Amino acid sequence: MSQKPVIEKVENINTNTKFIGLQTLHWRDQEGKQRKWENAYRTTRSEGGVDAVSIAAVLKYKNSTKPSDVILVEQYRPPVDSNVIEFPAGLIDKEGESAVQAAIRELREETGYQGDSIRVIDESPVVANDPGMSNANMKSVTIVVDDIDENAPPPLQELDDGEHIVRHLVPLKDLHKKILEFSAEGKIVDARLSHLGIGLDLAQNASTLF
After folding, report:
1. pTM beyond cutoff 0.85
2. pLDDT one-digit tens code per residue, 72-106
3. Which CATH number fits domain 52-209: 3.40.1180.10, 3.40.50.720, 3.90.79.10, 3.30.700.30?
4. For 115, left (φ over 0), alpha (ψ -120 to 50), or beta?
5. Range list of β-strands (E), 101-183
């Protein structure tokens, strides 16, 4: 008879690292067999139980027929030794900070967009980042930035020391096409962003595909 999987023991591995730790999970599967799983975990998890936030931010232009843009960022990621195209994102690492508060802060720091024109339209449940390798989790926050002047210069970023982040404004309707262009340039696209692009493309072409 099948049983519920259960973790029986967590063995921490001493890594003396600041942000990420390693564990061996001793667990029993649905058939009652004892197994082991190597697992990475965040050492910085907030009191609220959420590690990080990712921001899907859309710019709406005032007095213009210009289509809405989605804000992407590009930065070098050492684990993959490549520039990565992704959503603005960051750790929830300030005491008492909510996911929405962290999203607004990270959007301001990484892209410069802030102020009364910001509307938070969705906050996701907690979702797993890479559950086969890590317990890292996050929330996704969707933001609309209204009344953007398409002729105005972009706002100044508030980057931390050592951050080198490039902004990209991409028409939302062309997201999947632009993602393929980034990949063709040798850049790596974050899987979450890629999935959104594929989903939008499927939705736009559903009548001819299905």
Report:
1. yes
2. 999 999 999 999 999 999 999 888 899 999 999 99
3. 3.90.79.10
4. left
5. 118-123, 127-128, 137-148, 166-171
